[in-house]
Amino acid sequence: MRILIVEDEPELSGRLKKTLEEQKYAVDCAFDGEEALDRLADMPYDLVILDIMLPKLDGFGVLREAHTMGVDSPVLMLTARTDTDDKIKGLDSGADDYLTKPFSTDELLARVRAILRRKGGQNDSLLRAGGVSLDTVSREARINGAKVDLTQREFLILEFLMYNKNRAVTRFSLAEHVWGDDFEPFSMSNFMDVHIKNLRKKISGSDGESVIKTIRGVGYIIKDGQE
User: Fold this and answer.
1) Lowest model confidence (mean pLDDT) among 35-39, 60-64, 81-85
2) Beta pairing, strands 219-222 & 212-215
3) Interior/surface letters 80-92, b for 16+ CB within 10 angstroms, e for the rest
């Protein structure tokens, strides 16, 4: 899952980024409203964490312009204000939830998980395919019940493929969601292959078969044999 943080306070933005990356989310940052819109125009995000008080264009303006652009990413709005009218205005403008500063890390992560579950149509936090299960709350992966240690990139790859279970995912789409602007198609293509290879080894069953299949010339797919 890829998240965009729109926050003009560098220290807070840095803390949020570190916290979310520790939970194996991919994170980008924007520091004003115009930069946020540029990011949203360039890439689809699974969630936007949006401050109200921003330079150049405030959070309400970002929401309006994003909707005009056809952006449908869910939004968690941050505000230092305690005025109920601002909270109502944010929700009426299209925000999915809000947090009033200061807030705890646990509260932030709980709101993020809840929004992402609703977006993915998940009734619980567990994604399953074959013998593989992925808990989007605890951020744990298991193969036939045994816990598997994954790197952040491996977790993001597996999570994205499992959210798109039984659907082909192109290499470009996968790279875009996992690496974002950091991915260089020509220089990093083999780099992604290495991550896929290592991930397959970790989630292969006793028969050596992995749920991740390659679709030649397209990308990858995870198929659930039960469906």
Assistant:
1) 81-85
2) antiparallel
3) eeeeeebbebbee
Q: How far apart are CA 73 and CA 66, in angstroms?
A: 9
Secondary structure of the chain in the HEC alphabet? CEEEEECCCHHHHHHHHHHHHHCCCEEEEECCHHHHHHHHHHCCCCEEEEECCCCCCCHHHHHHHHHHCCCCCCEEEEECCCCHHHHHHHHHCCCCEEEECCCCHHHHHHHHHHHHHHHCCCCCCEEEECCEEEECCCCEEEECCEEECCCHHHHHHHHHHHHCCCCCEEHHHHHHHHHHHHCCHHHHHHHHHHHHHHHHHHCCCCCCCCCEEEECCCEEEECCCCC
- What domains appear along the chain, each with residue ranges and CATH number? 2-119 (3.40.50.2300), 126-222 (1.10.10.10)
pLDDT digits (tens, 9 = 90+) for 193-224: 889 999 998 988 656 677 899 998 888 998 87
Query: What is the end-to-end Cα distance of the chain in Å, rounded?
Result: 24
